[in-house]
Amino acid sequence: MLKIGDIEMKNQVVLAPMAGVCNSAFRLTVKEFGAGLVCAEMVSDKGIVLQNDRTLEMLYIDEREKPLSLQIFGGEKDTLVQAAEYVDKHTNADIIDINMGCPVPKITKCDAGAKWLLDPNKIYEMVAAVVAAVKKPVTVKMRMGWDDEHVFAIENARAVERAGGQAIALHGRTRVQLYEGQADWDIIRDVKQAVTIPVIGNGDIQTPQDAKRMLEETGADGVMIGRAALGNPWMIYRTVKYLETGELIGEPTAREKIDVSILHLDRLIALKNEHIAVREMRKHAAWYMKGIRGNARIRNQINECTTRNQYVRLVTNFAAEIEAEDQYANHVG
Ligand SMILES: Cc1cc2nc3c(=O)[nH]c(=O)nc-3n(C[C@H](O)[C@H](O)[C@H](O)COP(=O)(O)O)c2cc1C
């Protein structure tokens, strides 16, 4: 069971925070596919403190998404604490998460994200200050270290625990690795053994079986799934079911993928507006279409869509073509 502070998740499967992806439209969809916990995309502490309109829009949470973890990032104590206080008082997030993993230079050069991993004392100081300022449970998402020579995962995790952090999500890669190589799951096991707060393992879970293996090999309290859920909320559902019953549910059909992509688009339109949503949908559509036979032929056309109607017409025709081809193949076969 996964429990963070007083919040009990209904299962151990967590949607990873993903910038530009995990807004309310996607999170709600993933939630409906059974996720125990959904994480929002990272939000700038300074954006919150300066009350930037676009940043504040990112704090929108639909009640149906809960329990939800909202992640903030920053490099300075004052603004981080102020942002956390704002999230604590003015949002319906259940958990406040601090980003200590983002490898992007724009973030690390401001001493935010993965930069913290070099200094357990700073982690202690920052987390303690946030914990003291808010009522909601505070958690941390981190990479295992900065580079191979600086893997302080255990010291860093202990610092989070001492400071009053209530859980740690650990991605088994260093900052320097970005997304290369394989995630190290041994370090997840080592961290789990070093602290008493819940540890959520993350990195390279591509199948429901991977999730089970990670839980077994590391003893982690939860599994966090990122890239495998892009355009694929079924990955969450299939993992939940596999962990609960051992049953491996099949992959969705082309029609199912396309129908959920339309639902996702409609939610993006409600959240933003049609113009922005249809453009934002392009990358999601490419992920939804992944694995569908002949998807290359509509990918370019999707990238030219500017309205919902165009998108819906295009993808429903595509689904119908695939079904007709399948029927023909079954008939002939
Ligand atoms: C598009 C994208 C955006 C991401 N944005 C964030 C973020 O905002 N905050 C964060 O802590 N991690 C972020 N990550 C990292 C993921 O949460 C996760 O740690 C990483 O993808 C490894 O898990 P996976 O192998 O299941 O994808 C992002 C990853 C991707 C692919």
Automatic annotation (TrEMBL):
<protein>
    <recommendedName>
        <fullName>tRNA-dihydrouridine synthase</fullName>
        <ecNumber>1.3.1.-</ecNumber>
    </recommendedName>
</protein>
<feature type="binding site">
    <location>
        <begin position="226"/>
        <end position="227"/>
    </location>
    <ligand>
        <name>FMN</name>
    </ligand>
</feature>
<feature type="domain" description="DUS-like FMN-binding">
    <location>
        <begin position="15"/>
        <end position="315"/>
    </location>
</feature>
<dbReference type="InterPro" id="IPR018517">
    <property type="entry name" value="tRNA_hU_synthase_CS"/>
</dbReference>
<comment type="function">
    <text>Catalyzes the synthesis of 5,6-dihydrouridine (D), a modified base found in the D-loop of most tRNAs, via the reduction of the C5-C6 double bond in target uridines.</text>
</comment>
<feature type="binding site">
    <location>
        <position position="171"/>
    </location>
    <ligand>
        <name>FMN</name>
    </ligand>
</feature>
<dbReference type="InterPro" id="IPR013785">
    <property type="entry name" value="Aldolase_TIM"/>
</dbReference>
<dbReference type="InterPro" id="IPR035587">
    <property type="entry name" value="DUS-like_FMN-bd"/>
</dbReference>
<keyword id="KW-0285">Flavoprotein</keyword>
<dbReference type="GO" id="GO:0050660">
    <property type="term" value="F:flavin adenine dinucleotide binding"/>
</dbReference>
<feature type="binding site">
    <location>
        <begin position="17"/>
        <end position="19"/>
    </location>
    <ligand>
        <name>FMN</name>
    </ligand>
</feature>
<dbReference type="InterPro" id="IPR024036">
    <property type="entry name" value="tRNA-dHydroUridine_Synthase_C"/>
</dbReference>
<keyword id="KW-0820">tRNA-binding</keyword>
<keyword id="KW-0694">RNA-binding</keyword>
<dbReference type="InterPro" id="IPR001269">
    <property type="entry name" value="DUS_fam"/>
</dbReference>
<dbReference type="GO" id="GO:0017150">
    <property type="term" value="F:tRNA dihydrouridine synthase activity"/>
</dbReference>
<dbReference type="GO" id="GO:0000049">
    <property type="term" value="F:tRNA binding"/>
</dbReference>
<comment type="similarity">
    <text>Belongs to the dus family.</text>
</comment>
<keyword id="KW-0819">tRNA processing</keyword>
<feature type="active site" description="Proton donor">
    <location>
        <position position="102"/>
    </location>
</feature>
<keyword id="KW-0560">Oxidoreductase</keyword>
<dbReference type="Pfam" id="PF01207">
    <property type="entry name" value="Dus"/>
</dbReference>
<keyword id="KW-0521">NADP</keyword>
<keyword id="KW-0547">Nucleotide-binding</keyword>
<feature type="binding site">
    <location>
        <position position="141"/>
    </location>
    <ligand>
        <name>FMN</name>
    </ligand>
</feature>
<keyword id="KW-0288">FMN</keyword>
<dbReference type="InterPro" id="IPR004652">
    <property type="entry name" value="DusB-like"/>
</dbReference>
<feature type="binding site">
    <location>
        <position position="71"/>
    </location>
    <ligand>
        <name>FMN</name>
    </ligand>
</feature>
